Amino acid sequence: MRNIFILVFFLNYFIIFSQSKDTEVWGPVPEKINTYYDNLPPSDAIVLFDGTDFSNWVTWGDKEPQWIINDDGSMTVVNGKGSIFTKESFGSVQLHIEWKAGTKAISKHKDQSRSNSGVFLQRNYEIQILDSYENPTYVNGQAGSVYKQHIPLVNASRKPGDWQSYDIIFNAPVFKNKKLEKPGFFTVFHNGILIQNHVEIFGTTTNVGQPKYSAHGDAPIMLQDHCCIPLSFRNIWVRKLE
Ligand code: MG
């Protein structure tokens, strides 16, 4: 009797084991990479700024950016010298960028007049950068908003003078015959906190009126020279998603 129990047990085990094999998938095997660690980018990332130079960037008129490179491996916006653009064009990407709001004359500035910039994907779609630590403004224009389109889920801002990070997943819009076939989407983490959860992009960022799309292909990433207290960037890298 005991032997029959043992036999049934192993028979069952064998059947379940062989059935579980039916749903195992062994390929294609994901590429093994080194992850983001200790400020070193992932091994499959394209580094856009490593603190040494503007070799991957231009400003208006294809000229060399006139922003400042600091000894600590960061760059600082010089307001009035123009936004900067990557030389390379991108489609869908994962983008990592770190930024630090300035502290200079902070009591004299409020609302959108603190450190104000933005990271634009494909030169068109802005994730707002703003000192939003203790600085009320319209909520669809605070740090981490998809500017004038989506309010961040929470305010994950750190105080001016502290480094902050955005990790942005951008699914580029798809155009066919100059018409929108599929809108773009943003997912954004601010200092590791999910603040935009796969939100639909309604069109090119605009400050006045409703956004709408204009067909385009791959395009540069832009960092905005807006105003008012200069802010800094460091550790910028992307991973292509297509
Ligand atoms: Mg902005």
* Order of helix and strand elements from N to C terminus: HEEEEEEEEEEEEEEEE
| Portion in helices | under 10%
- Say which CATH homologous superfamily is assigned: Exo-inulinase, domain 1
Gyration radius, rounded = 23 Å
Number of domains: 1
Bound molecules: magnesium ion
Shape: elongated
- Note the gap between the termini: 61 Å
CATH class: Mainly Beta
Mean pLDDT score: 93
Number of strands: 16
Kindly estimate the percentage of residues that lie in beta strands according to DSSP. Answer: 25-35%
Q: Major beta sheet, specifics?
A: 8 strands, antiparallel
Keywords:
1 helix; 32% strand; 242 residues; 6-stranded antiparallel β-sheet; 8-stranded antiparallel β-sheet; elongated; mainly beta; Jelly Rolls; 16 strands
Short structural description:
The protein has one domain: Exo-inulinase, domain 1 (Jelly Rolls), CATH 2.60.120.560.
Overview of the structural elements:
With 242 residues, this protein is mostly beta strands. It has a single domain (33-240), classed as Sandwich (Jelly Rolls), CATH 2.60.120. The protein contains one helix and 16 strands. It has one helix spanning 2-22; strands at 46-49, 57-59, 68-69, 75-76, 84-86, 93-100, 115-121, 125-130, 164-171, 174-176, 179-182, 185-190, 193-200, 222-223, 227-228, 232-240. The strands form three sheets. Strands 1, 3, 4, 6, 9, 12, 13 and 16 form an eight-stranded antiparallel β-sheet that branches. The chain is elongated and about 90 Å long. The N and C termini lie far apart (61 Å). The mean pLDDT is 93. Bound molecules: magnesium ion. Magnesium ion binds at residues 116-118, 126, 128, 224, 226. Magnesium ion binds next to strand 7 and strand 8.
